[in-house]
């Protein structure tokens, strides 16, 4: 099974404006910064903002979720409600709030069993796919386990060890969110080369990059997989 979500990249039209947004509203610290890219420390998951350029690009209109301690939820809601038209949704005993960044990505902050303070890791990324069933098959071979299907079979939730992905055929979800296109993510797994072997006949690109195996799937998403330590 896949272990952890290492990083998620988002494409931004104006890097300085996006950087200011994530510093001001999510209290994220810059981990590294270059001319075309800024990476924030989102509690163990790198949130990467990337200016338009060569592939792999960052994701567009990506819906993703970050963990916050359950006891901080009300404070986060009150603070963000002053600026954003928040949408709130409950999942059993846990609540999530949704709002948008300057580039149209839907940011979810969800109550989680994390220490904090503040944002403490990513726990979900939503991918838009053209054809759901073959996409589910590919992600199962990567190491995700299917745990839920939408009633109309246009949405599938799949779990790894410490985070989840959702695969959506084109549609609007909670808060009118959409799945990301050309999403670029990094994750860890016990045997990246074995994953590559399982996918070799069904994806357009597999390449070894230093410590990572990088896979581009038929929907244009890039998945970089590093061996678990």
Overview of the structural elements:
This protein has 4 helices and 16 strands. By secondary structure, it is an alpha+beta fold. It has one domain (5-227): 2,3-Dihydroxybiphenyl 1,2-Dioxygenase, domain 1. It starts with a strand and ends with a strand. The mean pLDDT is 95.
Write the layout of secondary structure elements.
Blueprint: E1 5-11, H1 15-26, E2 29-33, E3 37-42, E4 45-50, E5 63-69, H2 73-81, E6 87-91, E7 94-100, E8 106-112, E9 122-128, H3 132-142, E10 145-149, E11 155-159, E12 164-168, E13 184-189, H4 192-199, E14 205-209, E15 212-216, E16 222-227
Parallel strand pairs: 1-4, 5-8, 9-12, 13-16
Antiparallel strand pairs: 1-13, 2-3, 3-4, 5-9, 6-7, 7-8, 10-11, 11-12, 14-15, 15-16
Which structural traits does this protein have?
229 residues, alpha+beta, 2,3-Dihydroxybiphenyl 1,2-Dioxygenase, domain 1, 8-stranded mixed sheet, 16 strands, 17% helix
């Amino acid at each position: 099974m896949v272990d952890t979500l290492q990083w998620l990249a988002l494409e931004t039209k104006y890097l300085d404006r996006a950087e200011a947004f994530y510093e001001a509203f999510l209290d994220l610290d810059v981990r590294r910064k270059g001319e075309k890219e800024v990476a924030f420390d989102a509690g163990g998951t790198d949130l990467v903002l990337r200016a338009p350029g060569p592939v792999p690009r960052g994701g567009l209109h990506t819906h993703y979720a970050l963990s916050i301690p359950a006891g901080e939820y009300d404070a986060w809601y009150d603070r963000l409600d002053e600026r954003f038209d928040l949408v709130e949704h409950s999942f059993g005993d846990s609540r999530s709030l949704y709002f948008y960044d300057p580039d149209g990505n839907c940011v979810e902050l969800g109550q989680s069993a994390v220490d904090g303070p503040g944002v403490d890791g990513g726990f979900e990324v939503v991918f838009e796919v053209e054809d759901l069933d073959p996409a589910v098959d590919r992600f199962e071979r990567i190491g995700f386990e299917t745990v839920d299907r939408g009633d109309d079979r246009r949405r599938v939730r799949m779990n790894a060890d410490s985070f989840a992905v959702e695969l959506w055929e084109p549609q609007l979800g909670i808060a009118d969110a959409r799945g990301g296109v050309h999403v670029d993510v990094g994750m860890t797994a016990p045997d990246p080369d074995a994953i590559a072997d399982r996918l070799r006949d069904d994806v357009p690109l597999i390449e070894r990059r230093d410590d990572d195996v990088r896979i581009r799937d038929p929907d244009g998403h890039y998945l970089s997989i590093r061996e678990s330590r």
